Each structure stands twice: as C-alpha cells, then as structure tokens.
Amino acid sequence: MLRVRNFQKFQHYAHRSPPWVKLHRSALQDYAFTCLQDASKAHAMLLWLLASGCDNAIPDDPQWIARQIHATEPVDIDALVSAGILERYDSAPRKRDASKVRASRKQNGGTETEERRDRGDIGTDSPNRRESGPIKAEKTTWLTPIGAAWEAVNGAGSFPYGQAAKELKPLRDAGHEPPVIARRLAWYLEVRGLDTADPDPVVIAKTRFTPNLRDFRLRFARFDPERTQ
C-alpha cells in the first residue's frame, strides 16, 4: 500500500474524506518536489486529493491510480516515493508476540485459563468459538485495496467489509488477485455499472446507480478497463 508522507499538513478538517485539502506554497521550496518531472508534480498534487478520499490508504497500483486521478500519462510511483511524496507500507496487521502477551498477563495477575487459551491448549476445537483480533484481520486484509477503490468513490468508511468478504471471495478463489478486483471495481463504479467498454460521459452522468457488490461479482468479466468491444 501507499500513503502520502506527512499527510496531516494537507488536512484542514479533522474528519475523513474532506471536501478539499491545503496546498502549501512551501512546495516551491521543496528541492525534491521541484526536481520532479512536470507530470509527476501534477500527479503528486492529485494524489493529495485522492489520499483525502481514501483515508490515506492508496493501493500500490499505478494503473488504478491513473484512472482515479484521470492521468493521461503513466504515474511514476517510484519517482514519487524517491522524492518523499509517497511512502510504501505493509497494511497487514502485526501479530503480537504470544510469549510477551503471556508474560504481561502473568505480571498483571492473569489466570491460568487465560494463559492456556493463549497457548492454544483450550478453546481451539470449539465450533462456536468466535474469531477475533489478528485471526479475523488476516482473513480480511486482502480486501484492503478493494475497499480503497470503493471508498475513493463512495467516501471513507463506506465499504461493507463483511458483505464484501462473502460476495467477492468467489472471485479471489477463482484466482483473481485483489488489485485486479480493485481495478475492475473502480471501473464498475466509474461507469456507474454501464455494461459497455467506452460509455458516453453524458449517459454516465444521467444514469441512476446504486453500487452493488453482488451485481459487480456476477458481471465481473465485463468490467475490464483494458477490454475493447
């Protein structure tokens, strides 16, 4: 995943998905920024806008980014990372060291039952045991780029992760990588579900549309941004 470095300085509003971001004049004195190609400078400013709409969690997918910011030239992600505009990070949740957890719990008066549960001695074979923490997070991490594509259009916090895990899992099981699913979902949202390779922008604007993950899954093959009729 990608994020804008020091993004808080561009934020005017405390809540997510603000209607605008701040553009500081100091960018003209930023040596790394001024050394970028003109196209990359424009891409950087558009990425600041994109980051504001997806809680600064941007899929590391140049093609998806280009579609979101309507770029007419390739987006040079590596150049933006080298200039310190963007940075890459691992979106997977970090697992806590079990031995440290047990030591901390014992120091704070934890019970033997809790310690046995941490070791996996009990509760592992119960059909009604609820998944929690890292276990549940690991199962939904693959949805991160897909959620970012959805929230870039529909607003931060709008992606239904529970429904998506159910509706989109068949696509993943069929061998489609999450960035591919995210790219096609972005196209599905951009053309408002219209089943055509190059829809008329006027028609798009007039189309009443409610995003639906099941509808997207059933018509997944039709929403390939690279396909031509």
Question: If you had to describe this structure to a student in words, what would you say it looks like?
Answer:
The radius of gyration is 21 Å and the shape is globular. The longest helix is centred in the first third of the chain and has 16 residues. It has 13 helices and two strands. With 229 residues, it is an all-alpha fold. Strands 1-2 form a two-stranded antiparallel ribbon.
Primary descriptors:
single chain, 229 residues, mainly alpha, two-stranded antiparallel sheet, 2 strands
Average residue pLDDT: 76
Taken in chain order, the helices and strands follow as EHHHHEHHHHHHHHH
Report how far apart the termini are.
32 Å
Indicate the percent of residues in helices.
40-55%
- Strand proportion: under 5%
Radius of gyration: 21 Å
Shape, per Cα inertia axes: globular
* Spatial ordering of strands, largest sheet: 1-2
Classification by helices and strands? mainly alpha
Largest sheet: 2 strands, antiparallel
Number of strands: 2
List the quaternary state of the chains.
Answer: single chain
| Total count of domains | 3
Unreliable stretches: 120-138
Number of helices: 13
Give the arrangement of secondary structure elements.
Elements: E1 2-4, H1 31-34, H2 38-53, H3 62-69, H4 77-82, E2 86-88, H5 98-107, H6 112-119, H7 133-140, H8 144-154, H9 161-167, H10 169-173, H11 178-190, H12 201-206, H13 213-218
Antiparallel strand pairs: 1-2
Helix pairs in contact: 3-11, 5-6, 8-11
